[in-house]
Amino acid sequence: MDAIHRFLPCDTPSSWLEAALANQPNLLIDHANCEKKAAATAINLMHRYSLEPGLLSKMSQLAREELLHFHQVVKIMADRGIRYIRLSPSRYAAGLRSIIRKPEKEQLVDILIVGAYIEARSCERFAKLAPRLDDELQRFYKSLIKSEARHFEDYLKLATQCAGGDISARLKVFARKEKELITAPDKLFRFHSGAPVFNIHQ
Predict the structure, then answer these.
(1) What is d(CA 120, CA 186) in angstroms, rounded to the nearest whole number?
(2) How confident is the model at residue 202 (pLDDT cuts 50, 70, 90)?
(3) Residue 66: which of 132, 162, 150, 172 has the closest Cα?
(4) CA-CA 20 to 30 A from 157: which of 13, 45, 52, 166?
(5) Distance from CA of residue 108 to its chain's centroid?
(6) What are 186's strand-pairing partners?
(7) Could you tell me the pLDDT band of residue 1, with boundaries at 50, 70 and 90?
(8) Residues contacting 6, CB < 8 A, separation 6+
(9) Nearest Cα to 109, choosing from 161, 63, 173, 57?
């Protein structure tokens, strides 16, 4: 987790953590959505960049793992009588993607950096939530930390390889945006939402 904490520009606000604990059904629903979207992103990258063997290998593995996590979350929800419903997305991923550059090579590098931030933030939140959850969810979230940390590392390595060199300048740009999205007031509760100014049962 040390690499995750060094990478992220800030900690999750304690107010988000309290809102998540008070609204576990929506937390699980949006967690399932995040796993499904992560798998879809990996598959989309495989289609768009089919001539990148390193990317194909990593994204195929990531897609399989994210779909497994989706299945696991949905099963936990079903066991708890939580209905899987459609939720509007948080501003987080869209906010990060809003600063992706347009040229093809730079676009790929930025997409991979966004993936690294999403996986790192997910990992950090799993770690913060796990000790305060019931035994089943605690075991499950702890089991996800290792794979999410590996996904973060894979995205970061691929971004560096695709850039052909140092990406620290771009990381700083995305770090500023990520911090803003995580710490600024947020009217919507989701797995990646910011500091809550909402009814926790939204």
Answers:
(1) 20
(2) very low
(3) 150
(4) 13
(5) 18
(6) 196
(7) confident
(8) none
(9) 161
Structure tokens that stand for 128 in this block:
């913060």
Give me the torsion for CA of 20, 25, 27, 31, rounded to 10°: 160
Characterize the bridge pairing of strands 185-186 and 195-196. Answer: parallel
Instruction: Retrieve residue 65's tokens.
Output: 């793992």
Cβ-Cβ contacts under 8 Å for 84 (sequence gap 6 or more): 29, 32, 74, 77
* Model pLDDT, residue 51: 81
Residue 160 CA: distances (Å) to CA of 5, 96, 167, 171, 179:
19, 18, 6, 11, 22
Per-residue pLDDT of 77-99, as tens digits, reads 999 999 998 899 999 999 999 99
**What angle is formed at CA 103 by the lines to CA 101 and CA 105, rounded to 5 degrees?**
100
Judge whether residue 198 has pLDDT over 70.
no
Angstrom distance (rounded) from CA 199 to CA 183: 17
If we measure between CA atoms, which residue out of 110, 123, 107 comes closest to residue 169?
A: 110
Of the two residues 60 and 53, the one the predictor is more confident about is 60
* Torsional sign, CA 87, 125, 12, 166: negative
3-class DSSP assignment, residue 133: coil
State pLDDT tens for residues 62-78: 999 999 999 999 999 99
